[in-house]
Design goal:
Number of helices: 3
Distance between the termini: 50 Å
Helix content: over 70%
Shape: elongated
Largest sheet: none
Strand content: under 5%
Number of strands: 0
Length: 69
């Protein structure tokens, strides 16, 4: 077995772990309901549009919290 083959196993684990951590960071930073609500409020939208988005995301958040015991 060559050195490259032996090193490929830990490097594959590191690459996989990095992708998973990046996915979690992106989800929490940009795709969570809270961040979507914050983005909508910050962007210059009409108040009606912002209200609809915030209501939809808040409803999704409430459903998520109701499912978790």
């Amino acid at each position: 077995m060559s050195v490259a083959q032996v090193l490929s196993v830990p490097s594959a684990v590191v690459v996989t772990l990095t992708l998973l951590l990046l996915t979690v960071w992106l989800e929490r930073r940009f795709l969570s309901p809270r961040s979507l609500i914050t983005m909508v409020v910050r962007v210059r939208n009409t108040p009606e549009h912002a209200e609809r988005i915030v209501a939809a995301q808040a409803e999704a958040l409430l459903r998520t919290y109701q499912r978790v015991p």
